[in-house]
Amino acid sequence: MLRFTTAGESHGQALVAILEGIPAGLRLAAADVDRDLVRRQQGYGRGRRMQIEHDAAQFLSGVRAGETLGSPIAMLIANRDWKNWQEIMDPAALESDPAPRRRAVTRPRPGHADLSGMLKYDRRDARDILERASARETTARVAAGAICRRFLSEFGVSIASHVVHLGGIDATRPEPLPADLNAAADQSPLRTLDPDADRRMVERIDAIKREGNTLGGIAEVVCDGLPVGLGSHVSWDRKLDGRLAAALMSIPAVKAVEIGLGFQAARVTGAEAHDEIELAPGRTATGNVRRRTNRAGGLEGGITTGEPLVIHVGMKPISTLMRPLATVDVATGEPAAAVAERSDVTAVPAMAVIAEAMAAFVLAQAYLEKFGGDAMAETRRNVAGYLSTLAANMSVPADPGT
């Protein structure tokens, strides 16, 4: 079973990702991971932390001579900012330690895990919570997701994203989307495909930054090249839409996930919500049929249809405001302004890249559940056998007049 875990704190020595279940024989280089780590650091409205860190992955295990071994892949991503935080984040108890250590956080931020985590884990310093709850942890997720993306690319699956809304401004979605969606989106400072909206979003970010405030937004993730049949209808925890929603909702500050029409499907009739089906000989990955529309977003009954998988992911504004909201100081029990550390004005473009990574993981997991294989050659054979079965599906009957 494909699975991953991460470890590390925002200002600790490093982040670690361990990915287990990738078949042996996948060609893999650090550049395959670093490419997405760089993309995660981009985006107008990011804070000074992105100027400090230059994220790159170091393989510790699971890869040899440029190929996966089938064993767990461990990666380390160093935090360059550690040198400025060593005294504060040192794991060892030091004789010279003040009580509490410097930069203790006793004024929890509304909207963050600070206060709930302090109460749950019986901590007096919110730094014990916020360092792990920080979105910096998603760097390790992107590393794991990049390998899943590399695996899926062997079977013609692509995963890309673009920002469709930010801070009250909608971006027009072009039809059709660019053939290389990420290449097009990455040309924009906000990863939009609408230059006019991009300009207005930048102006909005600048104005909000002057106010000491933050902004959220929505990204669209598009997964193309998937065959029909990933996921299952038979049990609630095998439905692919539920699994994708859970993975995407786990991203810090993400508060909404829609597949296809999403909430709009609740506002229209059945005739306007569902996708009519027609024969499409030669369209093997969909079973020789096609949907005339893609309102379902590529999933029906928790199973892929072979049409593009389209997901919208909504991110709330970041919790750290430079003009802080009201809170209480847990050390004194008095009303106070929340702590204000360096922060982004918005991280929606980065969230889109993280969403790609989480989608890649869930889809790679579903791929391996369907096709198995301890080695890439075995997985390829299994995929080829399935596609050959699909190729024979819905063969067009002969004309009785001939």
Give me the secondary-structure topology:
Layout: E1 3-7, E2 14-20, H1 30-40, H2 49-52, E3 58-61, E4 63-64, E5 67-68, E6 73-78, H3 86-89, H4 114-121, H5 127-133, H6 138-153, E7 158-166, E8 169-170, H7 181-185, H8 195-210, E9 217-224, H9 240-249, E10 254-259, H10 270-273, E11 277-279, E12 289-291, E13 299-300, E14 303-304, E15 309-315, E16 326-329, E17 334-337, H11 348-371, H12 376-391
Antiparallel strand pairs: 1-2, 2-6, 3-6, 4-5, 7-8, 7-9, 9-15, 10-15, 11-12, 13-14, 16-17
Helix pairs in contact: 1-6, 4-5, 6-11, 9-11
Structure description:
With 402 residues, the chain is α+β, with helices and mostly antiparallel strands. The protein has a single domain (3-382), classed as Chorismate synthase, AroC fold (4-Layer Sandwich), CATH 3.60.150. It has twelve helices and 17 strands. The chain has helices spanning 30-40, 49-52, 86-89, 114-121, 127-133, 138-153, 181-185, 195-210, 240-249, 270-273, 348-371, 376-391; strands spanning 3-7, 14-20, 58-61, 63-64, 67-68, 73-78, 158-166, 169-170, 217-224, 254-259, 277-279, 289-291, 299-300, 303-304, 309-315, 326-329, 334-337. It has a five-stranded antiparallel beta sheet with strand order 8-7-9-15-10. The chain is globular. The mean pLDDT is 94.
